[in-house]
Amino acid sequence: MEKSIRVFAPATVANVTCGFDILGFAVSAPGDEVVVTLKKSPGITISEITGDGGRLSKDPSQNTVSVPILRYLEKIKSKQGFDIKLHKKMPLGSGLGSSSASSVAGVFAANILLGEPLKRIELLPFAMEGERVACGSAHADNVAPALLGGFVLVRSYRPLDVVKIPTPASLYATIIHPHIEVRTKDARSILRNDLSLHDAIVQWGNVAGLVCGLLMSDYGLIGRSMHDVVAEPYRSALIPGYYEVKQAALDAGALGAGISGSGPSVFALSNDEKKARVIAKKMSEEFNKLNIGNDVYVSQINSEGPVVL
Amino acid sequence: MEKSIRVFAPATVANVTCGFDILGFAVSAPGDEVVVTLKKSPGITISEITGDGGRLSKDPSQNTVSVPILRYLEKIKSKQGFDIKLHKKMPLGSGLGSSSASSVAGVFAANILLGEPLKRIELLPFAMEGERVACGSAHADNVAPALLGGFVLVRSYRPLDVVKIPTPASLYATIIHPHIEVRTKDARSILRNDLSLHDAIVQWGNVAGLVCGLLMSDYGLIGRSMHDVVAEPYRSALIPGYYEVKQAALDAGALGAGISGSGPSVFALSNDEKKARVIAKKMSEEFNKLNIGNDVYVSQINSEGPVVL
């Protein structure tokens, strides 16, 4: 009998306002599911993809779910074959780390099927290779929280150094995905390549404040720190109604709000589940006013990361 | 009888490598002492200054010890007069927050003599006015730790928002003051006014890492985060032998090392008092090789701030 497992890996919010390229957190929903099966012969196949609207390639060298497995097998010098069924249960190109969820789910499943020759943290560089396929560079701010769960700091890329930051128990994320498309490439190219020392100081003051707030369970400090002078001023232009949606979240009691990753999804943090649901409703109303369809998600910070279902 | 108190306020290390303009910590020595006396008639006088080599003005509108008191008295609408004796027990222009120590000592003493009409944190804006006298702008990264003690984050200047960061018990600072002069103005003007987004990301990754390391008592993370791509590459040129001194500290087991404030003092952090003393010796030897006289100080992080002696 073939051995097979089904794995869920979560969506993630990268940047988290001031933490451009270095902070991200995982949520409980949405996310991707993969079914990975040990094959008797070598080689990776993707036998099924659902939920992608036909946009993803079944070529294992082109799909973010399989590339990490290929790199992983090279590393552990294994010729084991796998079949992958990928069930996209979250929107593509949404700024919610769709490619990261697939990358993490795939390599996490493969490692378990092989008896966990590598520790979870050791899978990170392979999962990052999935990001390279998706957006041209091996970013870790979605992949790391998708893999490790929780709130994750990517302190450094060279060498790679990630830190899981303990967070207060009552921290809720509200995420809204408006049905518009923002290409990651456009969201990147709209940014300036340099910034004033003054703006940089503002940003790292806030980054330090946010991290302190999380570790000290100081919700007020978390909120006061959630400002972004680097990406929001530019990327907000790609999201119709962005500032109204953000203000609606703040008016409804959010600690802070910002663009999720490179957008167009918008997220808010709050310290109460009921509040998080009211925030969802208010944010949704703003996009509705503009006749922009949207999906909302409310979840605690997901401290687990990927799980076998 | 005239009422009089003697107050000590500590030296401080600002920037702390990656925390340019936003981080600072206080040490137990050196520091300044002031004797402040309630006068029967209005007006501020500075009747004595020692330890300054004749460099400081006795004009109360020109000295960092008295300007904060003047602003404070305006705020609380008091016409109380004070006499101040200022005993500089630390080097001027050393990058150790000499002006901040005086500013904090003065206004802290005055507030106590008046029965503490303001809370300690409320004295911060007045102490910052002393910095404006000393260097032309009201920075808080020395004043805030001198006033509050400990490791302090200046999250924001507008509005002013400072956070005292709990630190591990066994965190020691080694400070070395080489007998050369670096003018704060020169140390400022040598910096670039803007930086690449790439460098900024490296810097705030490290800032977040340092803050995490402090709060999680993770000495390894503290050390890995102590890098500065913003000021050190430029200001190091103003300190002969800087990189050799830094390397000597690291070789002797320092977690990390960097320029204290705008220099020329150099500091190192370590997690053991004995190690901190060996580091002091090794750093001193490097400056000795260059025939640069130097003073070394070893101290725990000073969590108290100013004290009445």
Concise account of the structure shown:
2 copies of one chain form a homodimer. By secondary structure, chain A is of the alpha+beta class.
Overall description:
The structure is a homodimer of 309-residue chains. In chain A, the strands form two sheets. In chain A, strands 1, 2, 3, 4, 5, 6 and 12 form a seven-stranded mixed sheet that branches. Chain A has a four-stranded antiparallel sheet with strand order 9-10-7-11, sandwiched between helices. The two termini of chain A are 19 Å apart. Chain A has helices spanning 67-75, 98-113, 124-135, 143-148, 184-189, 197-215, 219-225, 232-235, 242-251, 273-289; strands at 4-14, 23-39, 44-50, 81-87, 151-156, 161-165, 172-178, 194-196, 256-259, 266-270, 294-300, 307-308. Chain A is built from ten helices and twelve strands. Chain A has 309 residues and is α+β, with helices and mostly antiparallel strands. Chain A has two domains: 4-165, Ribosomal Protein S5, domain 2, CATH 3.30.230.10; 172-300, GHMP kinase, C-terminal domain (Alpha-Beta Plaits). In chain A, 34% of the residues lie in helices and 26% in strands. Chains A and B meet through strand 5, strand 6, strand 8, helix 6 and helix 7 of A and strand 5, strand 6, strand 8, helix 6 and helix 7 of B.
**Could you state the order of secondary-structure elements of chain A as H and E?**
EEEHEHHHEEEHEHHHHEEHEE
Number of helices of chain A: 10
Largest sheet of chain A: 7 strands, mixed
- First-residue to last-residue Cα separation of chain A: 19 Å
